[in-house]
Each structure stands twice: as structure tokens, then as C-alpha cells.
Design goal:
mainly alpha
Length: 237
């Protein structure tokens, strides 16, 4: 069985289940395109390109987890913090599609599964965690860096469990579900820690130099309180 990334190879999950998740991934990406149009501007568009390039680079580091499946850095939370959930999901999806079509990294029939796990589950979990943490942590480089670290670790583990669920629905090999879930969670916790350190360092650095480029700081900043005008003394003549 060929070893692919977390990035699932062809044949690991049955055809019908893969087809269902391909349809789900297509609908999710269409929704992201619709929502992303409101976010994209002259500042976010070039940042999205840089984020996609960075994710492509870090995903080239692979760590074997199971026969036919290995783990790597995902980059979903990093994308969420810098460019938001909708554009972030599209960045990760673009990387996955290019890797599949040009580098055979991940099976073509499993593309929907991979997009679901890494671009949808990974970024959705990252966004929910970032949204919650940024409401209680300080809106500073250290605060956004800590947020990126925690969200990265949990988001990577949850994305790995997406594969466990898909395998439970239509796995084609003789592997114990408890072993799969435990192995994926354990290995991806370690991968998540590594990803968290990279994401925290990156976003904290950007936040110090150009905080206006960090989506999380713009989206979750506290709105300024506008004072009401004082009444005119003496009333109306």
C-alpha cells in the first residue's frame, strides 16, 4: 500500500463513502467562495497567496502514521488567524488540489476526504477555538500567538479524527478502530505541538510588525466606545 500524507491514499476508504465526502467538500468550498467575497480586499488577497505558499511548503514534511496514511503539518489554524476561516479554507484546499494533481500526494478519489479533514474540519475547529480564545486573551502579539498554538494543537487532532470517522464508515483494510483512533490522536498531538509552535511564532511576528494584516486581531478587536455628545447648555433659545 502506497504511503501518502494525511492525505489519504486511493483505496483506503471505499468508493461510495469517498463520493459522499467529495460532494460534501464541493458544497463546503462553494459556500466558502461565497462568504470569502466579502473578506477579500487589496490587503487580504496578497496575504492569502503568501499563506497558501507557506502551507504548501510546511505540508511537504510528512510523518508516517499508518499504512497508506501519514501525518504532516496542516496550516489550517495559521490560515484562520491571518486570513480568516473562509479564505483560509480555500487556501488549504488549493494546496491539497495542487499536491494531488501535480505531485500525486493523496489519492484523486480521496481528494474530497482530504479536503473535508484538513480544509473544512481543520479550519472550522481552528476558527471556533480562535474566536473563543481571542475574546478572553489580550489582543497582543503574545495573545494571538498563544491562541494560535492552542487552536493548532486541538485543530490538528480533530482533523485526524475526521479520517477515523471516514474509515469507520468505509474502511477497506483490516485495522482495529481503537488502534486507528489512538494512533492518529497520539501522533497528531505531537504534530499539532510542532505546528502550534510554528503558527504561534509566525502570527506573533506578523502581529508585531503589521497587526493590520492579522485577521484575528481585526475581527475580534474590541469596538471603541463612542461617547455621546454633551447636551448644549441653556437649551434651545
Amino acid at each position: 500500500m502506497d504511503t501518502m500524507a494525511m492525505h489519504i491514499a486511493n483505496g483506503i476508504v471505499s468508493g461510495p463513502v469517498s463520493a459522499v465526502f467529495a460532494a460534501f467538500a464541493a458544497l463546503a468550498l462553494a459556500f466558502c467562495v461565497w462568504r470569502a467575497r466579502a473578506d477579500l480586499d487589496d490587503r487580504l488577497a496578497p496575504m492569502a497567496g503568501l499563506v497558501a505558499a507557506f502551507i504548501f511548503a510546511v505540508q511537504m514534511l510528512n510523518f508516517q502514521v499508518l499504512p497508506g496514511v501519514s501525518g504532516h503539518l496542516l496550516g489550517g489554524t495559521l490560515a484562520v488567524v491571518l486570513v480568516g476561516p473562509w479564505v483560509g479554507a480555500l487556501c488549504v484546499s488549493t494546496v491539497l488540489i495542487v499536491q494531488c494533481l501535480l505531485f500525486a500526494d493523496g489519492g484523486l478519489t480521496a481528494l474530497g476526504l482530504n479536503i473535508t479533514n484538513m480544509a473544512v474540519i481543520g479550519t472550522a475547529a481552528g476558527y471556533l477555538l480562535v474566536a473563543g480564545l481571542m475574546r478572553v486573551l489580550p489582543k497582543t502579539p503574545a495573545g494571538v500567538g498563544s491562541t494560535a498554538f492552542v487552536a493548532s494543537v486541538i485543530g490538528v487532532v480533530l482533523a485526524s479524527q475526521g479520517f477515523v470517522f471516514e474509515y469507520w464508515l468505509g474502511g477497506t483494510t483490516e485495522l482495529n478502530m481503537t488502534t486507528i483512533a489512538g494512533t492518529m490522536a497520539g501522533v497528531h498531538t505531537l504534530i499539532g505541538i510542532g505546528e502550534g509552535l510554528i503558527a504561534a511564532t509566525t502570527v506573533a511576528t506578523v502581529a508585531r510588525v503589521r497587526p493590520d494584516l492579522v485577521y484575528a486581531l481585526r475581527r475580534f478587536r474590541t469596538a471603541p466606545v463612542v461617547a455621546e455628545p454633551a447636551p448644549v447648555a441653556g437649551g434651545v433659545a
